[in-house]
């Protein structure tokens, strides 16, 4: 960067800046860990010399914290894909089953929101289609943070819930399904060609919450990409312009993900016996009755603490997926 000619080639300099940012994100935590470990070692030496049990207890607690961070850094080494460091767009759709599945889709949206809060990720609601009685038909969330996509890509697929229905007067057991798609958010540095003539843009009256203004004007936007028949929408903002921007953001991400899938399909075409985990496959079951269990069918990871998982504690199941598929 100190080279006088560094900034003359904007594309090259931007690539170098992004690479430097990624490397710093990897290196800084390791250097901080080394410093903490050195400090703990010095405290341990002094505690032994002084035979100070209180300081020994403090050092043991510090080492436990360091051990947890080491585990996190080990997981980070698995996030080396070209898009893993990017922001993510998470879309959730309720499956067949009416109100039951719509309620389940809303539970999943809360689960991912809580997960993002735990990791300090920023979230923004790009689109929300509420259910008629309860829950949601679908939603799209923007997740902002380092390696948001690398972590959340583990969630793409169909999620199954088994429980005693709160919407059934006989309180019978019901099975509900909802699908989750996770895409890397596409920034301006990635070329995704979208021609105006390939788009059909429709406006309509929004049905989401947002006050009388939202419901009385054609502020909602639906965009159809004619060559691929991909349909995206946004109705959560009061402004039609903002909704169009959000819809285009989702479309760019989906077209980029489609391009990645096509490239992967070409590479895997000649490989036999390898089943790709993709939309349409049931990746995880959450059972609340007659017993409690969460099981990820790709890794066989499981836990009986369903409520902890539904409250956004997804670290173990995501780490198991990363170790299985990458490690």
Which structural traits does this protein have?
327 residues, alpha+beta, Alpha-Beta Plaits, Double Stranded RNA Binding Domain, 3 domains, 8-stranded mixed sheet, 3-stranded antiparallel sheet
Give a quick summary of the entry.
The chain is of the alpha+beta class.
Topology:
Elements: H1 10-50, H2 53-76, E1 88-94, H3 99-119, E2 122-130, E3 136-144, H4 148-152, E4 157-164, E5 173-184, E6 199-204, H5 212-216, E7 220-225, E8 230-234, H6 240-268, E9 282-287, E10 293-296, E11 302-303, H7 306-310, H8 315-325
Parallel strand pairs: 4-9
Antiparallel strand pairs: 1-3, 1-5, 2-3, 4-5, 6-7, 7-8, 9-10, 10-11
Helix pairs in contact: 1-2
Describe this structure in words.
The protein is α+β, with helices and mostly antiparallel strands and 327 residues long. The chain has three domains: 6-76; 88-186 and 277-325, Alpha-Beta Plaits (2-Layer Sandwich), CATH 3.30.70; 196-267, Double Stranded RNA Binding Domain. 43% of the residues lie in helices and 23% in strands. The protein contains eight helices and eleven strands. The chain has helices at 10-50, 53-76, 99-119, 148-152, 212-216, 240-268, 306-310, 315-325, and strands at 88-94, 122-130, 136-144, 157-164, 173-184, 199-204, 220-225, 230-234, 282-287, 293-296, 302-303. The strands form two sheets. Strands 2-3-1-5-4-9-10-11 form an eight-stranded mixed sheet, sandwiched between helices. A three-stranded antiparallel sheet has the order 6-7-8, covered by helices on one side. β4 and β5 form a beta hairpin. α1 (10-50) packs antiparallel against α2. The radius of gyration is 23 Å and the shape is flat. It starts with 9 loop residues before the first helix and ends with a helix. The relative contact order is 0.11. Residues 210-214 and 270-279 have low confidence and may be disordered.
């Amino acid at each position: 960067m100190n080279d006088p000619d560094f900034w003359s080639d904007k594309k090259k300099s931007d690539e170098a800046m992004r690479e430097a940012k990624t490397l710093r994100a990897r290196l800084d935590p390791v250097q901080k860990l080394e410093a903490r470990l050195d400090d703990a070692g010095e405290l341990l030496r002094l505690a032994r010399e002084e035979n100070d049990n209180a300081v020994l207890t403090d050092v043991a607690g510090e080492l436990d914290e360091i051990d947890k961070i080491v585990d996190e850094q080990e997981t980070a080494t698995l996030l080396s894909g070209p898009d893993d460091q990017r922001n993510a767009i998470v879309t959730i759709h309720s499956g067949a089953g009416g109100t039951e599945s719509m309620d389940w889709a809303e539970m999943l949206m809360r689960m991912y929101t809580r997960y993002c809060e735990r990791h300090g990720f920023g979230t923004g609601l790009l689109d929300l289609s509420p259910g008629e009685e309860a829950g949601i038909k679908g939603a799209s969330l923007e997740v902002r943070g380092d390696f948001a996509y690398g972590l959340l890509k583990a969630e793409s697929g169909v999620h199954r819930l088994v429980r005693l229905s709160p919407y059934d007067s006989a309180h019978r057991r019901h099975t509900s399904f909802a699908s989750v798609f996770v895409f890397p958010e596409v920034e301006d540095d990635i070329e995704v060609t979208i021609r105006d003539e390939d788009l059909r843009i429709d406006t309509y009256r929004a049905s989401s919450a947002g006050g009388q203004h939202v419901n009385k004007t054609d502020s909602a936007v639906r965009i159809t990409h004619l060559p691929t028949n991909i349909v995206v929408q946004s109705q959560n903002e009061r402004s039609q312009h903002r909704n169009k921007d959000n819809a285009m953001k989702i479309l760019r991400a989906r077209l980029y993900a489609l391009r990645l899938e096509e490239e992967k399909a070409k590479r895997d075409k000649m490989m036999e016996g390898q089943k790709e985990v993709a939309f349409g496959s049931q990746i995880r079951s959450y059972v609340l009755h007659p017993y409690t269990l969460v099981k990820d069918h790709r890794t066989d990871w499981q836990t009986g603490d369903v409520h902890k998982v539904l409250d956004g504690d997804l670290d173990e199941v995501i780490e198991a997926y990363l170790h299985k598929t990458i490690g």
